């Protein structure tokens, strides 16, 4: 797009690893100028966090996936000259994001009140692990630990299995998305009222909010959600909801009445069940369906389910997904080239605007790559 909606917005990103940088990535995709403020010595800790030993341009591939389309300004927050430069950047900034432990930014004189005194309209958006108060405030805000403490690991897997974490850093990703929502709301308010804002989110609050269905049920009943013993898909949903093995793969079956699923798949054993049994006898019903589906291939069952108008899908791995026409039409892939002219294929921003997909081919920055450019464009003309 020739004019992205956040073009002209300046974001200073005091963030590392995934949660804060994922928020910056989305803001950059929508046109914001995102400047990473990185430690002069090692930069964002994610630069040294490999994905199965994949490295590009002396940084991990993970760093490149969530820091494309940004600039890097290397600074030492213990150095008074560097702090002076940063304060001049704050004067020109619209948004500041940070995901350090509580109190760290204040030690450097870069907390919200300090920044507000420099730039009263600044939107200061911060991520913590568990909030800034209470007995957990200093615990490490690491994704797996948060999934475990929030109860999320008891929603996946079968009832007789150990707790199962998500296969992605869901706390970081969800929290980063919440931070973007808060920032955009604050920008709208600033446009209307001319005031800045302090936006606070935590990984724990994001994961609790993420489980709103389950928590609402728990608040109302006092009962813990129960995973099914067989083919668990969702603790609150009855049979047949789940993923089932077939003779040559797996299929997913969504909500359906016991009568319709029995008729469509030709399972006589289900005739003895009524719809009111769908939850109370969930494991027994799912076990009957599972034993039946293993006898023939996925395409056979999917055809029957589709004929009867029941929601189902094949279970695809990534190789199968990217070869499908349904995936190809989405055009989710984009390529970027780094300073060594190595091509990296990654995903694009999933948002479309006015029918246009948002592609951004600018690679992740090298540490301190844009110091001189930023000083010339933003610092030299500062009034501080």
Helicity, as a percent range: 25-40%
CATH topology description of the domain at 10-210 and 352-379: Rossmann fold
CATH architectural group of the domain at 10-210 and 352-379: 3-Layer(aba) Sandwich
Structural class: alpha/beta
The count of strands amounts to 15
Q: Segments where pLDDT lies below 50 for 5+ residues? A: none
Integer-rounded radius of gyration? 25 Å
Terminal Cα span: 35 Å
Strand order of the largest sheet: 5-2-1-6-7-8
Q: How can the largest sheet be summarized?
A: 6 strands, parallel
Number of helices: 16
User: DSSP strand (E) fraction?
Assistant: 15-25%
Instruction: Give the overall shape, derived from the CA principal axes.
Output: elongated
The CATH class designation of the domain at 10-210 and 352-379 is Alpha Beta
The CATH superfamily of the domain at 10-210 and 352-379 is identified as Crotonobetainyl-coa:carnitine coa-transferase, domain 1
Overall average residue pLDDT: 94
């Amino acid at each position: 797009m020739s004019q992205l909606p956040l073009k002209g917005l300046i974001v200073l990103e005091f963030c590392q690893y995934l949660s804060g940088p994922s928020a910056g990535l989305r803001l950059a995709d929508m046109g914001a100028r995102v400047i990473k403020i990185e430690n002069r010595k090692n930069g964002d800790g994610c630069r040294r966090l490999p994905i199965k030993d994949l490295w590009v341009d002396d940084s991990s591939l993970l760093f490149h996936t969530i820091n494309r389309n940004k600039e890097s300004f290397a600074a030492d927050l213990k150095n008074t000259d560097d702090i002076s430069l940063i304060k001049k950047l704050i004067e020109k900034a619209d948004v500041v994001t940070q995901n350090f432990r509580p109190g760290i930014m204040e030690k450097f004189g870069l907390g919200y009140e300090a920044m507000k005194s420099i730039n009263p309209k600044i939107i200061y958006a911060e991520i913590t692990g568990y909030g800034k108060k209470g007995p957990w405030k200093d615990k490490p805000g690491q994704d797996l630990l948060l999934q475990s403490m929030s109860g999320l690991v008891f929603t996946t897997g079968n009832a007789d299995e150990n707790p199962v974490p998500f296969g992605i850093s869901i706390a970081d990703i969800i929290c980063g998305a919440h931070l973007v929502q808060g920032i955009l709301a604050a920008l709208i308010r600033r446009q209307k009222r001319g005031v800045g804002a302090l936006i606070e989110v935590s990984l724990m609050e994001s994961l609790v909010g993420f489980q709103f269905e389950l928590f609402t049920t728990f608040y109302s009943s006092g009962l813990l959600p129960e995973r099914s013993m067989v083919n668990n898909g969702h603790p609150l949903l009855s049979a047949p909801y789940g993923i089932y093995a077939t003779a040559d793969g797996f299929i997913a079956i969504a909500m359906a009445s016991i009568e319709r699923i029995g008729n469509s798949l030709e399972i006589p054993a289900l005739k003895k069940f009524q719809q009111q049994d769908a939850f109370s006898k969930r494991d027994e019903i799912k076990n009957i369906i599972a034993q039946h589906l293993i006898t023939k291939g996925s395409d056979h069952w999917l055809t029957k389910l589709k004929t009867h108008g029941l929601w189902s899908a094949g279970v695809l791995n990534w190789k199968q997904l990217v070869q499908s026409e349904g995936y190809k039409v989405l055009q989710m892939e984009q390529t970027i080239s780094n300073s060594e002219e190595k091509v990296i294929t990654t995903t694009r921003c999933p948002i479309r605007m006015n029918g246009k997909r948002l592609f951004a081919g600018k690679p992740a920055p090298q540490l301190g790559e844009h110091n001189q450019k930023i000083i010339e464009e933003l610092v030299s003309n500062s009034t501080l």
